[in-house]
Amino acid sequence: MRFVRNRKVVVGLVILGFFGLLAVVGPWVAPYDPSARSADILQAPSGQHWFGTTHLGQDVLSQVLAGARGVVFVGLVAGVVATVLSVVIGVTSGYLGGAAAEGLSAVSNVFLVIPSLPLIIIITSTLPETTDLTIALVIGLTSWAWGARVLRAQTLSLRRREYVEAARATGESTWRIIGFEILPNLTAVIAASFVGTVIFAVLSEITLAFIGVSSVSEWNWGTILFWAQSQQALAQGAWWWFVPAGLAIAVLGTALSLVNFGIDEYANPRLRGGAGTRKDARGRVVRMRVGFTPVVHSGQKDAQEVGR
């Protein structure tokens, strides 16, 4: 409950829930077909078109609503795939040891030194068809190395703890120790890795659409930015064409970052806002700050007066 009571987490989860709802019902509640053309060319926001129109008279609001599904879908699928791979490879190589574990660690090191986004661009550009599922799988299969490296380091630290040694001494199986002794202590790291991968996947999906690597016929926020850039919306003063999609990307990234900050505060007591509170000599609450030693001036003066 401490995690849920965190204000950053609450705000982030509410925003994520809103975007999740848009991903489900967005194409249905869109006022127009996002690809339908009309005579209202490059119209500013109005009562008829809340977010304005494009150079073909397409409704920008409908494109933003319809594009939320692809972004959220790619982020979630890629995050799940990358997190599963990082847990399996990182925890296995960290706990078991031996030649197989060293081989898994070497594979993760290879993926670490390869730039992820150029690799994703090369793979997706060579595929005959780039759907949202294809892009999500490619991002997930190429973005697990960093999380696996972190989990391996944490597992190496946990494998010699007293409770793990006690479980091993009582004859517990290896997979039971990993599942019930190691993984519960890695929950915060796994959750942070998942959120970080979702952020990377969302940005990668938008980047691929913006540079024209993925299909520009399937709407997402990157596709909106692609057409706005290719038709020189900024030069024409059509700010409404790209600002809504840019704001949606920024708000979604902020929500994911807030949840990530909440996970860090939950895992690290030093980062909790209310964890370091003390009372001075007069009973007043003094809040400690990370990185600074709290000094209560009034209490020091009282102590000096008592000493005299």
UniProtKB/TrEMBL annotation:
Localization per record: Cell membrane
Residues covered by the ABC transmembrane type-1 domain: 72-260
Presence of keyword Membrane: yes
Key words, A-Z: Cell membrane, Membrane, Transmembrane, Transmembrane helix, Transport
Record field: transmembrane: 9-30, 71-97, 109-127, 133-151, 186-211, 239-263
Secretion signal span: none
Pfam family of the protein (one): BPD_transp_1
Bilayer topology annotation: Multi-pass membrane protein
InterPro entries: BP-dependent_transpt_permease, MetI-like, MetI-like_sf, OppC_N
Organism domain of life: Bacteria
Family: Belongs to the binding-protein-dependent transport system permease family.
Name of the protein described by the UniProt record: ABC transporter permease
Species name: Allokutzneria oryzae
